[in-house]
Each structure stands twice: as structure tokens, then as C-alpha cells.
Amino acid sequence: MTYDLIIIGGGPAGSAAAVYAARKRLKTLLVVSEWGGQSIVSEQIYNWIGTPALSGNELAENFKKHVMANVGDSLEVSEAEKVVGVTKVENTFSVKTESGKEFLSKTILMASGSGRRKITAKNADKFENKGLIYCVSCDGPLFADMDVAVIGGGNAGFESAAQLLAYCKSVTLINRSDTFKADEVTVEKVLQNPKMATIKNTEILEIKGDQFVEGLVYKNTATGVESELKVSGIFVEVGQIPNTDFVKGLVPLDEIGRIKINTWNQKTEVPGIWAAGDCTNVLYHQNNIAAGDAVRALEDIYLDLKTR
Ligand SMILES: Cc1cc2nc3c(=O)[nH]c(=O)nc-3n(C[C@H](O)[C@H](O)[C@H](O)COP(=O)(O)OP(=O)(O)OC[C@H]3O[C@@H](n4cnc5c(N)ncnc54)[C@H](O)[C@@H]3O)c2cc1C
Q1: How far is the CA of 14 from the centre of ligand 1 (A)?
Q2: Alpha-carbon torsion 227, 223, 161, 197, what sign?
Q3: Residue 65 in 3-state DSSP?
Q4: What per-residue confidence (pLDDT) applies to 284?
Q5: Is the pLDDT of residue 39 over 90?
Q6: Is the CB of 135 under 6 A from ligand 1?
Q7: Is 185 exposed, middle or buried, given 0-12, 13-18 or 19+ CB atoms closer than 10 A?
Q8: Does ligand 1 come within 6 angstroms of the Cβ of 246?
Q9: Is 33 in the pocket of ligand 1 (CB under 6 A)?
Q10: CA atoms of 58 and 40, how far apart (whole Å)
Q11: What is the position in ligand 1's atom list of the atom closest to the CA of 293?
């Protein structure tokens, strides 16, 4: 049998798309390796519209509940299943999973998201979500009136610093090399703020603290001198790793592996494949954005299937 649509991913993008697909009566399979997506690790999420606060686990449970309530004649779900390959077979796509299953579909929606690149300094694991944070928009306001650091001198690092400057006591941006990768205009603007400082040529050696972050130890890579910076929060913006390995060679990706899309309709450069959320080359990464992008994709997939 051939599905109308296979959706890959059980985060906000995949879950939103599945609900819409069921309501539009598309013969759909949702393949989910884990429900909830990246923010399941968050203690509290304060910006999921319609819910003032909920934990990452609650968000995941809600996604599952909402999708499962729509399972029926049109929607099926394959849980705890990881996609390992997608190939084109004449006018359909074949989706293979780790457990050896194979499914066929007329269209594909990639909603496989991404993972944040982590820092490897001593104790970085121990303090994750205890002051060492991988999402400023999510947790930044918890650090109001505190001294914080941002690791990473790209656009994401500077944009995060700009957000933090609105309410933190001071922000120190720590950069690996001598030059910042971020756009000059952004750098200039952010550095004008008197609460802003930078440290260049730096390797982070250790995160310090008891229950929560209290500082970090870094080495100046030019001089070899080690120093300590006292901060209550460390925001890491050293890049993202999109979950797109399994479509490499089939779908055009950008230089960091994100799926290139047309933001008007979420189409990839391969007819029959759409993508939404953090696996795509969009600028902003939030649950509401991923869900919205997926809904836009679904509308377009529906139109495409019904006008073939
Ligand atoms: C620590 C942290 C906290 C965050 N907090 C917030 C917040 O408070 N508010 C907010 O709006 N945003 C937050 N974000 C950002 C937000 O989580 C992401 O923008 C959002 O999750 C992206 O959704 P997505 O569906 O595109 O991808 P993801 O959430 O990454 O979901 C991808 C899904 O695909 C599945 N998957 C991946 N590969 C495969 C495969 N091969 N086969 C099958 N399934 C696969 C994954 O298991 C997952 O279910 C946070 C991010 C991080 C890292």
C-alpha cells in the first residue's frame, strides 16, 4: 500500500502536521522516534501559546495525546521507530526504518528537527539546565539582573546577547577565535551596550558551581593563561546539528546540513518532499514556529495531492 503522506518526526512540527493531515483525511503515516522534540528537557516552557507554563515532558505527552486522538482510518502512527533512509522509487518515496520496516508514500514531510551542538568542557553535562542553557528565548528571563555569559560569536551568539542585555546585569560573550562570525552591523550594535563585554581567543575548560552554575574557567589560547569568570548563567550558541543525514544525497542541504526550503510553502527542491521546523534553513527556532511551518507545509501538500 502507498500512503498519501509520511511525516518523519514527533516534535511540534511533526505532531502539528499529523493532526492536520488526519483532519484533511490524507492517508498518512507518522514515524516518531521520540515524542516532544528538543524541548522535552526543559523544566518549564512559558511560551507555548495557550498554556502559560508546562514542562517539556507535559508538552511531549500533550503532543502524543493530541495526535493519538486523531488516529483512525486516515492517520497511523509508527512509534519508537527511527528512519534511516528515504529514496525515490519512480513516482513514490520509500522510507526505511532502523528496525527494517519499509513504507511507501506519494509525499514526504521532513520534521526531524535538530540537536544543539554541545560544549565539551568539564562539568558541562552536570550543569545542563542548571544554569548552562541551550535556548535563550526559552530560559533567558530567569536570569534577570544576573551576570551571564554567552558562548559563541556567530549571529546566534550576538542575537542571544542582545536579548539578554534587555534584563541581565551584564553579558560577557566568549569567542573561540580573534574575530566574530556574526554580521558586522549586529556586532557593532550589541557591543555599544555598556553592560556588554567580550573575551576572545578562548577555550572553555570547566564549568564551576555547586547545585547551579557559579562560573567558568577558560584559557586564553594565545597566551595559555587560565582565568575564571563568575556568572550565574551560561548560554551556549555554538551551532545546531540538523537530523538530516538520512536524506543526504536526495534532498539539497545547505552548508551546515539544513534542508533548503521555499519559505512561501515549505517545499524542498525535490518535488514531493516538504520540510518544516528546525531541520530547515529558517532563521528562528521555536516550538510555535515549527508547528506553524508544519501546518503551512500540510496545506501545500494537501493542495498538491488534490490537484495532481
Ligand atoms: C534545551 C531547549 C529548550 C527549548 N525550549 C524552548 C521553549 O521553551 N520554547 C520554544 O518555543 N522553543 C524552545 N526550544 C526550541 C524548540 O524546542 C525547537 O525550535 C522545536 O522543538 C523544533 O521543533 P521540530 O519539530 O522542528 O524539531 P524537534 O523538536 O527537534 O523534533 C524532531 C523530532 O523528530 C524526531 N526524529 C529525529 N530524527 C528522526 C528519525 N531519523 N526518524 C524518526 N524520528 C526522528 C525526534 O525524535 C523528534 O521527535 C528549545 C530548544 C532547546 C534545545
Answers
A1: 10
A2: positive
A3: helix
A4: 87
A5: no
A6: yes
A7: exposed
A8: yes
A9: yes
A10: 8
A11: 26
- Ligand 1 pocket, mutate which of 102, 116, 138 (most atoms under 8 A from CB): 138
Q: How far is the CA of 117 from the centre of ligand 1 (A)?
A: 13
Mean pLDDT of 234-255: 95
The closest alpha carbon to 110, from 2, 10, 9, belongs to: 9
- Residue 304: closest CA among 131, 109, 69, 58: 109
Q: Are strands 170-174 and 196-199 parallel, antiparallel or unpaired?
A: parallel
Q: Find the Cα–Cα–Cα–Cα dihedral 272, 276, 280, 286, rounded to 10°.
A: 180
**Cα 115 to ligand 1 centroid, rounded to whole Å:** 7
Atom number, ligand 1, closest to the C-alpha of residue 129: 1
Average pLDDT for 225-232: 98
Q: Can you tell me the distance from the alpha carbon of 197 to that of 175, in angstroms, rounded to the nearest whole number?
A: 11
Q: According to the model, what pLDDT value does residue 46 have?
A: 87
Q: How confident is the model at residue 148 (pLDDT cuts 50, 70, 90)?
A: very high
Three cell numbers written together for 127: 550543569
Q: Distance, CA 307 to ligand 1 centroid (Å)?
A: 32
Q: Read off the pLDDT of residues 105-139 as tens digits, 9 standing for 90 and up.
A: 999 999 999 988 999 999 999 999 999 999 888 88
